[in-house]
Write a structure and sequence with these properties.
By secondary structure, this protein is mostly beta strands. It has 10 helices and 35 strands. The strands form 4 sheets. It has a 16-stranded antiparallel β-sheet that branches. Strands 1, 12, 13, 14, 15, 16, 17, 26, 29, 32 and 33 form an 11-stranded mixed β-sheet that branches. The radius of gyration is 31 Å and the shape is globular. Its EC number is 1.4.3.-. Keywords: Copper, Membrane, Metal-binding, Oxidoreductase, TPQ, Transmembrane, Transmembrane helix. One of its GO terms (molecular function) is quinone binding.
């Protein structure tokens, strides 16, 4: 044996051990962090044009309140503590300037319009109580105010139309506990084990049957988590129309299918044994079946999305840039998320896109349920925009934006992370083709889009509001509904109005109707409305005249008037309907943007209804009207509490005016019918409960603009598709082998609630 051999083997073993150790260490080494860049850029002074649309800053809100306190000559009580007989500031929001002024500033080099606020005040402490709206400006240092109420609505807004303040709900709650319930102590104690804390209530709206009424049914539930599906069978009708709280009264009581004059009569009937009592099993504080606490332990982590080379969009103030897109965003207190000055490839395609209203009409055999027609704009879709949870409400790595509002207080409030913006890989190609005929190649483009999202929780409903921007120039407006199903106490013929979802719980049928304002400016402000569709025609085959062919052909029609452009909810509408520009593309077609609606809305309230005109926008799946500054919204926050004499009736917008070569607005109604079922317990899922619309280029470009996207993939059979310069996807193991910079999880949703 060679005496050197053991040393050679030892050296070889050491080398092998060293190499293996390096390999193991390199595998165990943490991957580098992904690139990052600032998503939200700081303010750049007054030069940013998008600030003409910006929401009020907290400092501006404070200045408006100070100005109103010092210049109206009346005492203003903090609305959070106000009685109906007080004067108070209900809300302060931005007053967006007139479109003509804004376009002169944006496009014509004109002066920046003065920055102004719109303040809504309740004047209960005066001989003629009313609601008044003031425009206050210029900001940031107010020096004037204008009463615009008569200009906007044609007269004063009667006081009974005012939306209920939170303080009024509290005052009604105190009335129920100290006055109404005090009249039926035996019934409440023995039937509900009432202790002053274990009953919650939900109001209904509108409040009565005629103008001037303020009589509300309050539905009683067990005060547990998810109380909306824990009805106990008791409902109380309270007349709270008087500005003197001491004059409020119970008008009627309902329990388990029977009506009573008041709580005194209910108590008497119970004590005498003349009531059919249906005791509800007491639920634990977590709600039991209504608890949203997961029934399974956490396991493997769900898939996450991240940006290996940093976000590909940027946000400056209220302005967003993403690939060929740019737009400004804002959050209206009443209507929620809205967008302005939407441009693709530098050209404006829409001036304004925003939510107008969310209506839900309920059915039930209980009084509260059957009389409910919620108009959520009256409660405040933007006001009830809720803080978003990273990784659930939006992708974990999304950009989260704080918003501010002044509603029912004298000081602004911050809603942390109440809006999110993110680019999302939708997991499917935007377009693709695999060719194995004639030539061999693959071409495709990942469908990656930018999403702007907010979520409003209005009572039991949670609405997920999205605006989505695609690389082919399309915009999608989408709403998804979740939250708790509202319910009634199951009794009698209740199953005519929904499904039984728990022992005493009837999930009540309801319609959801969502209205949007879409102010398209296609190739300029002046547009026309054109409808394309199809029809079959019968022809003889030219090469074989004895044979007949049925072939589809294109039908075309210009819709000249507002009446022609108002399509009833369930009527047939042209499948291609678009705003046409006064310019043509390379192929001689009018450039256009098509409106495509996705909806399975329930039926509209019959027009014979005394309150239908207040929601007459819901008659139409689409209505196109001439744009007018005096018709800024399809409804009003005052319609909820006086739908019988609506402050704004959308039906009046449609008066057969010509809409050819005019500045036009599309009013889009989408929605869904919801019949709650057992799978709505504990609460409703978004799957299948969504609706919306698409705005799609239609001959607007000479070819699909997404062909210029940097995300495109193309390779042939003759190319090395594993080479990065040929196929960027092949480099993902290298370019995307980084760890995302996920910030620590935080949540501020329980602060200042």
């Amino acid at each position: 044996m060679n005496p050197k051999l053991p040393y050679v083997l030892l050296v070889g073993a050491a080398v092998i051990i060293f190499i293996l150790s390096c390999m193991l260490l390199s595998r165990g080494r943490r991957s580098p962090s992904c690139e990052s860049q600032p998503r939200i850029m700081e303010k750049m002074g007054s030069g940013s044009q998008s600030l003409v649309f910006a929401d009020l800053t907290p400092e501006e809100m404070v200045q408006v309140v100070r100005y109103l306190q010092g210049n109206l000559g009346v005492q203003l009580v903090d609305a959070s503590r106000a009685k109906p007989s007080d004067n108070c500031i209900a809300s302060v929001d931005v007053q967006v300037p007139a479109k003509a002024e804004v376009l002169r500033f944006l496009d014509g080099g004109g002066a920046r319009p003065p920055r102004e606020a719109l303040a809504v005040l309740y004047f209960g402490n005066q001989p003629d109580p009313n609601v008044t709206e003031y425009v206050v400006g210029p900001l940031p240092t107010p020096a004037y105010h204008r009463d615009v109420t008569v200009q906007k609505y044609g007269g004063k807004v009667p006081y009974h139309r005012r939306p209920m303040l939170g303080s009024e709900y509290e005052q009604v709650g105190a009335f129920l506990e100290t006055v109404a319930f005090a009249a039926a102590p035996t019934f409440l104690k023995e039937v509900f084990e009432y202790d002053g804390t274990n009953v919650a209530f939900q109001t209904t709206a509108p409040h009565g049957f005629q103008s001037g009424d303020r009589k509300s049914w309050f539905i009683m539930f067990q005060n547990v988590s998810g109380f909306f599906v824990h009805p106990v069978g008791l409902e109380v009708l309270v007349d709270h129309s008087s500005l003197d709280i001491s004059r409020w009264a119970v008008n009627r009581v309902f329990y388990n299918g029977q009506y009573y004059r008041d709580m005194v009569q209910l108590e008497s009937a119970y004590v005498q044994g003349r009531i059919s009592v249906e005791k509800v099993r007491k639920a634990p504080r977590d709600g039991d079946f209504s608890s949203m606490k997961p029934r399974a332990p956490s396991a493997a982590l769900f898939p996450l999305q991240y940006e290996p080379q940093g976000p590909r969009y940027s946000i400056r103030n209220n302005h967003v840039l993403f690939q060929a897109w740019s737009f400004a965003f804002g959050m209206s207190v009443n209507t929620g998320l809205r967008l302005f000055d939407i441009r693709h490839k530098g050209e404006r395609v829409a001036y304004e896109i925003g939510i107008q209203e969310a209506l839900s009409v309920y059915g039930s055999n209980c009084p509260g349920g059957m009389s409910t027609r919620y108009m959520d704009g009256s409660f405040g879709i933007g006001r009830y925009t809720s803080p978003l949870v990273r990784g659930v409400d939006c992708p974990y790595s999304a950009t989260y934006v704080d918003t501010h509002s002044l509603f029912e207080t004298l000081s602004p409030s911050k809603r942390k992370a109440s809006l999110c913006i993110f680019e999302q890989n939708l997991g499917s190609p935007l377009r693709r083709h695999y060719s194995n005929l004639q030539s061999l190649y693959y071409g495709g483009l990942v469908n990656s889009a930018l999403v702007v999202r907010s979520i409003a929780t209005v009572g039991n409903h949670d609405y997920v509001w999205d605006f989505i921007f695609y690389q082919n120039g399309a915009i999608e407006g989408k709403v998804q509904a979740t939250g708790y199903a509202s319910s009634s106490f199951l009794h009698g013929d209740g199953l005519r109005y929904g499904n039984r979802v728990w022992e005493h719980t009837l999930g009540t049928i309801r319609t959801h109707s969502i209205n949007y304002k879409v102010d398209l400016d296609v190739g300029g402000v002046k547009n026309s409305l054109v409808a394309h569709d199809m029809a079959f025609e019968m022809v003889r085959a030219p090469w074989s005249p004895e044979q007949q062919i049925e072939r589809p052909r294109l039908t075309k029609k210009v819709l000249d008037t507002e009446d022609q452009a108002a399509f009833r909810l369930q009527s047939k509408m042209p499948r291609y309907i678009y705003f046409a520009a006064n310019s043509k593309n390379k192929w001689g077609h009018q450039r256009g943007y098509r409106i495509q609606i996705t909806s399975f809305a329930g039926d509209h309230v019959p027009e014979a209804s005394s309150m239908e005109r207040a929601i007459s926008w819901a008659r139409y799946q689409l209505a196109v009207t001439r744009r007018k500054e005096e018709e800024p919204t399809s409804t009003s926050i005052y319609n909820q509490n006086d739908p019988w004499t609506p402050t704004v009736a959308f039906a009046n917008f449609i008066n057969n005016e010509t809409i050819t070569n005019e500045d036009l607005v599309a009013w889009i109604t989408t929605g869904f019918l919801h019949i709650p079922h057992s799978e709505d317990i504990p609460n409703t899922v978004t799957v299948g409960n969504s609706a919306g619309f698409l705005l799609r280029p239609y001959n607007y470009y000479d070819l699909d603009p997404s062909i210029y996207s940097h995300d495109g993939v193309f390779f042939t059979s003759e190319q090395d598709f594993t080479a990065c310069e040929i196929n960027p996807i092949a480099c993902l193991p290298k370019t995307a082998s980084c760890l995302p910079n996920f910030p620590p999880f935080t949540y501020d949703g329980f602060q200042n609630t």
